Amino acid sequence: MPEFLKITLDDKKWIDQLVRAADLRYADYCFTNMYVWQDYYSLCAARIEDRLAIRLCNNTADGSSVYSFPIGFGELFPVIEQLRADAAARGNRFVMRGIPKSELNELKKLYPDLEFIFKRNESDYVYSAERL
After folding, report:
1. What is the SS3 assignment for 9?
2. What is the DSSP letter of 63?
3. Chain centre to alpha carbon of residue 57
4. Which residues of 7-39 are buried (b: 16+ CB within 10 A; e: fewer)?
5. What predicted TM-score, i.e. pTM, was given to this entire model?
6. Mean pLDDT, consecutive 10-residue segments, the chain of 132 residues?
7. Phi/psi of residue 110, nearest 5 degrees
8. If phi over 0 gives left and psi between -120 and 50 gives alpha, with beta otherwise, what is residue 42?
9. How far apart are CA 89 and CA 84, in angstroms?
């Protein structure tokens, strides 16, 4: 079972390493955002193999946890299986958010029976300077 803990400043080095390896520029994976907002969102993190796993507690209508897509490198399937086991141990259904488009096809192959829902309001966005 993964050990999810509060993020400390000492975690910055390994978290930044895995974020760089994923080559994603999502706000959810910015160390500063995770660190500053962790209490508000009940966010905790775990290093599972060579991936960063994030769990947001009590962030659904039924009070269960939501997991962010585990970024980094290495095999994806065993990491997701650990997240699914963590959700089951908590009596929660497994919900994952922030799935990069580049990973969606692999996830659909690994889990053809899962439902994937796009939520536009939860997507990252960029403002143009002119429109601000």
Report:
1. helix
2. S
3. 12
4. beeebeeebeebbeebebebebbebeebbebbe
5. 0.82
6. 93 94 83 93 94 83 82 93 94 87 87 72 60 67
7. -70, -35
8. left
9. 9
